Amino acid sequence: MNRFVIPTRVYSGADCLQRLERYRDKDVWVVCDSFLAKGGAIARLLEHLDADRVSLFSDIMPDPPIATVVAGILQLQTIRPQVVIGFGGGSAIDAAKAMVFFGRKLGLTIDRFIAIPTTSGTGSEVTSASVIGDPALGIKYPLFDDAIYPDIALLDPQLVVSVPAAVTANTGMDVLTHAVEAYVSTNASDFSDALAEKAAQLVFRYLAAACSRGDCLKTREKMHNASTLAGMAFSQAGLGVNHAIAHQLGGQLHVAHGLANALLLTEVIRFNSQDARAAKKYARLARICGLATYQSEDRAALQQLLNHIGQLKRQIGIPAALGGLGLGAEKIRQVTPAMIAAALNDSTLATNPRRATAKDIGAILNAIE
Ligand SMILES: NC(=O)c1ccc[n+]([C@@H]2O[C@H](COP(=O)([O-])OP(=O)(O)OC[C@H]3O[C@@H](n4cnc5c(N)ncnc54)[C@H](O)[C@@H]3O)[C@@H](O)[C@H]2O)c1
Ligand SMILES: [Zn+2]
User: Fold this and answer.
1) 3-state class of 319 per DSSP?
2) Range of the domain at 99
3) In a domain, 54, yes or no
4) Does residue 70 register a pLDDT over 90?
5) Which residues is 115 bridged to in the sheet?
6) Residues 32-52: pLDDT tens digits?
7) For strand 54-60 and strand 28-33, is the pairing parallel, antiparallel, or unpaired?
């Protein structure tokens, strides 16, 4: 039996923050990072709320650690807001999700949990996932639970215009990785495929332009929508070995999440395409995205997918290998056994189309070194 549930209500477009006006008479708690707390972005939210009833938790760091979530829950218990807003990239939204999830478990009544993404990448605003880190162990834990879905997602492309080109590139490659992994997942369905196909089409069409002309609102809107579509796809279908390894590159070596996925993507496609069903699906995705003709053989279409991903990465300035990030080979080798062990335990591995052993994961890591 296939199950398809997207409980989050999605409002999109440049006027969608108006939706916040119905919470003017409520106590609102916003979870964000210090950058967003100071700039024009928070002012855009406050225009639609009663500023005197809004309080901020602005201590979010990239790859939020357990300690930040605990600090947030303590503040949540003191403030007891009716509405919580996760405002920022995946790090802020994931932390807010964990705070609300555990806060509700502790008996707090939170009427609305709203996610407002300011990067186009994780799709966290519509997923049942929250990725929380344990810096002492160098591990990132993806929690999945239906109770984690935000109630509402607001997709305002104007919030993304200020994202620097390098972050746009990394997060955009996260979108593509979500779409591709969901598409070949063992849990993929016609429903998740439709979402993944549209997301991948939009990335191939708009990501390079979003990096080079970040002030184009139409381009930003397309990438923002692609991110949410890919989030919906993988929240239903699951991910795979790409994310299982990327979480370790983040946990152990502090490689930004989207960049870690981008470094791995072509190598993971090569590995998974040894599975006949996955190879067919990669080929189909290449044709649907216009990267290969409908007459092309599967093998040729798969090669076009690899070529276009490689070309897109070069165009948007993603380095070819981990070495390009200035991480010493010695440091990488030192943490490789721990990364392999943790990747094998990462919950995203379960839906990979091909079984990946410790040796396979080691070989993928070696290939991107
Ligand atoms: N829950 C999920 O479904 C899911 C899926 C994928 C990844 N993740 C997690 O999400 C996190 C990564 O999220 P991310 O890639 O969005 O990065 P991020 O949230 O860490 O943000 C990256 C940087 O961009 C800055 N930024 C955010 N919005 C900006 C804006 N509008 N203008 C200028 N700068 C801005 C932030 O201040 C930060 O420095 C990781 O922890 C990853 O594991 C979660
Ligand atoms: Zn991701």
Assistant:
1) coil
2) 9-160
3) yes
4) yes
5) 86, 153
6) 999 999 989 999 999 999 999
7) parallel
C-alpha 368 to ligand 2 mean position (Å) = 18
**pLDDT tens-place string over residues 307-322:** 999 999 999 999 999 9
Q: Are residues 155 and 183 in the same domain?
A: no
Quick: pLDDT tens for 342-361.
999 999 999 999 999 999 99
- Residue that finishes a domain, picked among 131, 160, 189: 160
Please, which pLDDT band fits residue 134 given cuts at 50, 70 and 90?
very high
Q: Are residues 199 and 150 in the same domain?
A: no
Ligand 1 atom nearest to CA at 64: 41
What whole-number distance in Å separates Cα of residue 112 and Cα of residue 143? 20
Report yes or no on 64 lying in a domain.
Answer: yes
Return the HEC string of 256-307. CHHHHHHHHHHHHHHHHCCCHHHHHHHHHHHHHCCCCCCCCCHHHHHHHHHH
Contacts of 251 (CB under 8 A, 6+ apart): 63, 133, 134, 137, 138, 139, 140, 339, 342
Domain harbouring 65, CATH code: 3.40.50.1970
Q: Give 198's Cβ-side CA count (13 Å radius).
A: 17
Closest protein CA for atom 12 of ligand 1:
90
Total number of domains in the chain = 2
Question: What's the predicted TM-score (pTM) here?
Answer: 0.97
Ligand 1 center to residue 124 CA distance, Å? 9
- Taking Cα atoms as reference points, which of 269, 365, 263 lies closest to residue 320? 263
Q: Which atom of ligand 1 is nearest to the CA of 161?
A: 31
Same domain, 128 and 177: no
